[in-house]
Amino acid sequence: MLYDLIVRFDVLSAIASRLDGEQASLSTSPTDWSVPPQDATAGFPEAFNATLKELAITQNTLSQQIKTAADGVRKTSSAFATTEEEIAASARRLMRTRGMKP
């Protein structure tokens, strides 16, 4: 089977920008919301803060994965753009060697 490959650079750019925005929205660390220990709630602040630390680790992992995905989209877009330029340059050279005007 024969398939056409259509690359929409504007869509790839929008995807990378959206991923950047999602990563930026994760910039606040859960540990910024830690609570101080209090006598009336013995044990709760410690458990809550421990959970926040675990959430911060998960958030950092997710943020790194989003960054990796955004970087991958940008590299893919760049590779397609380079390929497109190389194909156009090859076509122009071929047309010139055959005496055609590009």
Task: Please give a structural write-up.
With 102 residues, this protein is mostly helical. Helices cover 70% and strands 0% of the residues. It is built from 2 helices and no strands. Helix 1 runs antiparallel to helix 2. The longest helix is centred in the last third of the chain and has 54 residues. It is rod-shaped and about 90 Å long. The chain starts with 8 loop residues before the first helix and ends in a 5-residue tail after the last helix. The mean pLDDT is 86.
Structure in a nutshell:
With 102 residues, the protein is mainly α. The chain has two helices and no strands. It is rod-shaped and about 90 Å long.
Topology readout:
Blueprint: H1 9-25, H2 44-97
Helix pairs in contact: 1-2
Low-confidence stretches: none
Order of helices and strands: HH
Q: State mean pLDDT (0 to 100 scale).
A: 86
Query: How would a crystallographer describe the biggest sheet?
Result: none
Q: What is the number of helices?
A: 2
Q: Terminal Cα separation, in Å?
A: 31 Å
Q: What gross morphology would you assign?
A: rod-shaped
Instruction: Give Rg in angstroms.
Output: 25 Å
Structural class: mainly alpha
Q: What oligomeric state best describes the polypeptide chains here? A: single chain
For the secondary structure, the number of strands is: 0
